[in-house]
Design a protein that fits this description.
This protein has helices at residues 9-14, 24-27, 45-55, 84-95, 105-109, 125-134, 149-162, 176-182, 213-223, 284-296, 303-321, 329-337; strands at 36-41, 66-72, 100-101, 114-117, 139-141, 166-168, 190-198, 228-235, 239-246, 251-257, 265-270, 274-276, 327-328. The chain is of the alpha/beta class. It has two domains: 9-171, NAD(P)-binding Rossmann-like Domain (Rossmann fold); 172-282 and 310-337, 2-Layer Sandwich (Dihydrodipicolinate Reductase, domain 2), CATH 3.30.360.10. The strands form two sheets. Strands 12-11-7-10-9-8-13 form a seven-stranded mixed sheet. Helix 7 (149-162) packs across helix 12. The longest helix has 19 residues, at 303-321.
Length: 339
């Protein structure tokens, strides 16, 4: 089951009804203007950008009554931590938005109603999210959700244990063309899709978790969610090609780029046309969805779809280990549950 029926402490305090949908633009005018105080864990490109979008957008109906008020930055792992110059730049941006820096997650939780967990490293996310969920705070988690599929499943288990909603996704999910394709507005019924994007490797994470997730999530967005049965992967030093076969016979292909010109994009094939998935157009659409989630408690992406995206990438790793043969998602999920 998804998180959509889980308790959200903000619903009661803000007087929000259970029937409200997930799209901010659809219900922003009906939302009471009491303040939602947001806390951030982690200094990063995203924490600086998302804070600016929320706090400088106070007059926009999507953000009215919502403000980032506090941040805690745990020391990062040295293999992925930003430089001191970068961290100082993020700090200056966030302080410029009137945000208080605190010295622990515990102190952060005393000041906020909801949390954006934006550390750029998936490894500490399980440890960092437990006190947030235990405190009853709805939380958005930046990609990668974790460094392994077993930790991904553990995070969802904790969310269910405390009956508190959380979600995680890439900003590329909210590319307008991708959303329109998913809703059948451009190519009709989607029969297949190809996506591409950067796929640098970070040895502490499953290969595609680090950056490949962006274009993998684009693939899932346009294909309409879950249903992939098997994954095979062809890999070389400079690129990966991952082919997923869905239960209904559709094929989704991801190309990961590690050399030459890079970027995000893809093509959707439908019964009424063929169209580009569209280019990345900024963080604002995702931040609108995050704030809408904090207000409603309704996750915009189901648990099942989030988990399957990570299972798809784990299956791609297993296929690589096995020389490129197809791997069942059900098998990697079973293995991860035993860890």
């Amino acid at each position: 089951m998804g998180n959509s029926k889980r308790h959200n402490p903000l619903k009661k305090s803000l007087g929000i009804g259970a029937g409200i949908g997930i799209h901010a633009s659809a219900f922003a005018e009906a939302i009471p203007r009491e303040e939602i105080k947001v806390g951030v864990i982690g200094l990063s490109v995203h924490s600086a950008a998302y804070t600016e979008i929320i706090n400088s957008g106070a007059t926009s109906p999507e953000f009215t009554g919502c403000r980032v008020v506090a941040i805690f930055h745990p020391k990062g792992n040295p293999d992925v931590e930003f430089s001191e110059k970068q961290l100082q730049s993020f700090t200056d941006t966030i302080k410029g938005q009137g945000v208080e820096f605190v010295s622990s997650i515990k102190k952060l939780l005393r000041k906020v109603d909801a949390v954006m967990l934006l550390t750029n490293d998936g490894r500490p996310h399980l440890k960092e999210i437990i006190p947030v969920l235990k405190a009853g705070k709805p939380v958005y988690v930046d990609k990668p959700l974790a460094a392994s599929l077993s930790d991904v499943l553990a995070i969802f288990k904790v969310s269910k244990k405390y009956n508190v909603p959380m979600f995680s996704c890439s900003p590329l999910r909210y590319v307008k063309e991708a959303q329109d394709i998913r809703e059948g507005k451009i190519v009709g019924k989607v029969l297949g899709a190809n996506t591409f994007g950067p796929a640098p490797l970070q040895k502490s994470h499953v290969d595609l978790f680090w950056d490949g997730i962006h274009a993998v999530e684009s693939l899932y967005t346009v294909l309409g969610g879950t249903g992939c049965k098997t994954v095979s992967r062809t890999t070389a030093d400079d690129a990966d090609v991952v082919v997923g076969t869905w239960e209904d016979g559709r094929i989704g292909v991801f190309r990961g780029i590690r050399k030459g010109r890079s970027g995000f994009g893809g093509t959707a094939f439908g019964d009424k046309g063929i169209a580009s998935i569209g280019a990345f157009n900024g963080y604002r659409p995702l931040v609108v969805a995050i704030v809408a989630f904090f207000r409603s408690g309704i996750v915009p992406v189901s648990d099942e779809e989030m988990i399957e995206i990570y299972a798809f990438m784990e299956a791609a790793d297993e296929s690589k280990r096995l020389g490129g043969i197809p791997v069942k998602l059900s098998d990697v999920l079973s293995q991860a549950k035993m860890k």
